[in-house]
Amino acid sequence: MHLSRIDLNLLVVFDTVYSEGGITAASRKLNLSQPAVSHALGRLRDLFGEPLFERQGRGIAPTPLARTIAGPVREALASVQRTLGSVGHFDPATATRHFRIGMREALETTALPALARAVCAAGPGLVLSSSRHERPRLEKDLATGEFDLALDVLLPVADRVPHERIIVDRLVVVARRGHPALRGARRRGLELAGYLELEHVQVSSRRRGPSPEDMALRALGQSRRIRLRCQSHAAACRIAADTDLVATVPQAYVEQVLERDTNVVTALPLAGLSLETYMYWPENSTADAANQWLRGQVREAIRASPR
After folding, report:
1. What domains does the chain contain, in order, with CATH numbers?
2. Higher pLDDT residue, 58 or 212?
3. pLDDT given for residue 93 in this prediction
4. I need a surface site. Which of 3, 52, 153, 177 has the fewest CB within 10 A?
């Protein structure tokens, strides 16, 4: 029997007649006429090729076939009811859900710990994955469900892709403790001329091209001397701790991760420069209760992080 031949309402009638023990009681509970209930049972008899109920005195009794299918039918109807009831509602304590977030490595260190604590504490059936997303594919990966949301800088995505700014972070300069060029700079502040005299580690996830501080310097007609390019803030700070190179990194990373016994921190002498991070999610998930809950957890995790 193909599923397309089944009217779900017929199964509802069957379950009600079976549980109520008769057509009259079922018709009252379903708010249907007795002929309508009898007609539904007739259609079920035609579908199964044999009756599901038979006359017994003044009432009816389930046949062996009815007793066989009663449990599975009730379970299937309950499953459908749970599915319909979950629309517009998400209970993390009872839900089973694998959330997938696109996140660059640099942001994992600062944003992921608080988010992981919140998601894991919310319910035993919740799983969280963070993986690197390719920026040119982000719009497609969101649309196809590869990611439930993504965190990144402002990207040239279509207007239909929902996004909001969730992080505004400052940049600071990290150097080894005892760096000769920074003696006293923490007290009086590092000037732009002094910053340009230093040798730098450039941090970028891209293979080539300027980072935000380099673009800000270009706008001033200036440039810095880059001796090393790497992908990780952790690597840049470690290199800065072991050499005379300096690294320009987000303040949030410094406040949460930096080993203060090996590094010193001073303000970046570029007024008004900040790093902005945006949250992106699929257009068709804007009203989805589970996605709404996840977005709320991301906002709370960001607020809970030092910044």
Report:
1. 3-86 (1.10.10.10), 97-160+282-304 (3.40.190.10), 167-275 (3.40.190.10)
2. 212
3. 95
4. 3
